UniProtKB/TrEMBL annotation, chains A, B:
The HTH lysR-type domain, residue ranges: 2-59
GO MF entries: DNA binding; DNA-binding transcription factor activity
Listed GO CC annotations: protein-DNA complex
Gene3D superfamilies xrefs: Periplasmic binding protein-like II, Winged helix-like DNA-binding domain superfamily/Winged helix DNA-binding domain
Coiled-coil residue spans: none
UniProt xrefs under InterPro entries: LysR_HTH_N, LysR_subst-bd, WH-like_DNA-bd_sf, WH_DNA-bd_sf
Name this protein carries in UniProt: LysR family transcriptional regulator
Protein family membership: Belongs to the LysR transcriptional regulatory family.
Keywords: DNA-binding, Transcription, Transcription regulation
Classification via SUPFAM superfamilies: Periplasmic binding protein-like II (SSF53850), Winged helix' DNA-binding domain (SSF46785)
DNA sequence: CCCTGAGCATCAGATCTCCTTATGCCGGGC
DNA sequence: GCCCGGCATAAGGAGATCTGATGCTCAGGG
């Protein structure tokens, strides 16, 4: 069967007049074009190109094939156009990966936003921080939610970055803690005596916590380390200790925790959605990106310490 | 870019209603069809098929693509038809391989016959006996001239065999040899005392010569072995000895040699042209096959010991 | 007349694509 | 509850496609 790419080659050859120019125009090597056109001739069972040592030109049969090919390629382009324009109806599967806090926080709002897209299916996965962008780049996932404490996330040649939320660290205390009183002043010096809980060393949020506590009054020793902010918030609720946590983690709705802002300037991260530049116009991916923006809006409304990130 | 084979698949899927039936109809495994249709969806950027665990059906976008595809494939078929009908004018290159004697013998007549096919180019190669059929089968060459001393060449599932010539062994003697006199009787017993030349042991024609000489009067020792019948005929002309050679080798036109028929029944070979069944209707290959028959006719006219082989 | 550069063919090797086979999941029918 | 058919996916092998290197040819310029 004729091959569309070879038909494209012979049409371009007809325009350009030489194998070398055709190769240059289409981004192949001249030997690739030569071999592909030879294969086309074998398949057609007729000479399509007259070649001499320094030139090549179409035979009569070659010219006739080019006429056919132009019509065929025109129909192919129509088909692709039709698919592309009707793909405004998002459908298919979109794979999103998020660090755990974001997955928990965004999932309900995403589900709510995407409910009306019947043909779209969403797969929400969890990944460890720092890997989301690579997974987008490699095509394993379509969109990644990533966080950035230090301003390192930038626009990328092949990736598009959408800012969603500003997510500051806040102080979480048990309901019966003296600092649960919103009128009680937070004395940084007294904070040093508290039983602090945090995620393990090496986690990005832990580094931010250490930095924050150092800034507000010397780093108190962290008495307990737990993996998972959900776990930590549960323990805060139980009175085990206090913790500095990203505001977003409160989206999980843990009861029995009172949230106070840190005195002075806190440390915050930005939360972004990242997608391949080549797929942001795909209707399904665009729909999920819009839903993420909408979800971010809900979250910012629900959690007073969160704010929408500027575009 | 859309791929014609995948478009063929989705059209067949539209007809058959299931991936399994499509696979069966087109000779693929179901997983191949599944993978190819998934690739088509990725490339189209839109869901084309709704799949459940036990069924699959086209989406609206899939149905629209099938409509486009039917038109595209129809044009492709027109193009292939046009090429195929206009390929009645033989053009392109045909590669023929022949054992050396046949190459030398057929070349002039082939060139004469093909002169009027301006767009056809012929490449005449030489190969060792026994390899020609394999080279045709593998596609390295289009036509092979092969010889058969023992009736082993048969019709083949994918090859078509055309008998061309019956080529007997004849006695070649120097012009001044006593047996050069056509009236001199050839006494087999006296032949034993002659200085015989032949091709090296193991060559098919040598085996035939040994058999012939054994049949006509006991195998005389072959005093000299030379590679190449042309060489042997030159030496016969120079009076070095005598030889039993296939009549076809005389087509080279060596002067100074007199040819006599062997007493009794000689051994002869058949010479065939072999081509792939799938290419014998290709205009260029058909033209060369006709030219080979015509050339065989010339050769049989020129060399009295040769005869045309029955179809 | 000779040299240079451009164009083309071909070969070898690396990479990618396509296919098969095996395996697992799901759901309908018995 | 079990069996069977349909589909997806993974792994591996074979073939296709591409690049880069090399060689040949020839036109044009010095």
């Amino acid at each position: 069967m004729l091959d569309l790419r070879r038909l494209t080659l012979i049409c371009e050859f007809a325009r350009r007049g030489s194998i070398a120019a055709t190769a240059s125009s289409l981004g192949y090597s001249a030997s690739a074009v030569s071999q592909q056109l030879a294969a086309l001739e074998r398949e057609a069972g007729v000479a399509l190109i007259d070649r001499t040592s320094r030139s090549a030109e179409l035979t009569d049969a070659g010219r006739r094939l080019v006429e056919h090919a132009e019509r065929i390629l025109s129909l192919v382009e129509s088909a692709e156009s039709d698919l592309s324009s009707h793909a405004a109806t998002p459908s298919g599967r979109v794979v999103v990966t998020a660090f755990p806090t974001a997955a928990v926080a965004f999932a309900p709002a995403l589900a709510r936003s995407l409910r009306r897209h019947r043909e779209l299916s969403l797969r929400l996965m969890q990944s460890r921080s720092g890997r989301g962008m690579r997974e987008v780049e490699s095509g394993e996932v379509d969109i990644a939610l990533v966080d950035d404490w230090w301003g390192r996330v930038r626009q990328h040649a092949t990736l598009t970055v959408f800012p969603l939320l500003n997510d500051p660290l806040v102080l979480a205390v048990p309901r019966r803690h003296r600092l649960a009183d919103p009128d009680a002043a937070i004395d940084p010096a007294e904070l040093r005596d508290e039983a602090w809980m945090a995620t393990p060393e090496g986690e990005p949020s832990r580094t931010a916590v250490d930095r924050l506590l150092a800034d507000v009054g010397g780093a108190p020793p962290v008495a307990w380390e737990f993996e998972g902010l959900g776990t930590i918030l549960s323990l805060v609720a139980k009175g085990t200790g206090i913790a500095a946590v990203p505001a977003l983690s409160l989206a999980a709705g843990v009861r029995g925790v009172v949230v106070r802002e840190f005195p002075g300037e806190t440390i915050e991260r930005r939360i972004y959605a990242v997608a391949r530049a080549s797929s942001v116009h795909r209707a399904s991916v665009a729909a999920v990106l819009r839903a993420l923006h909408v979800a971010a809006g809900y979250l910012a409304a629900d959690l007073p310490h969160l704010s929408l990130a500027a575009q």
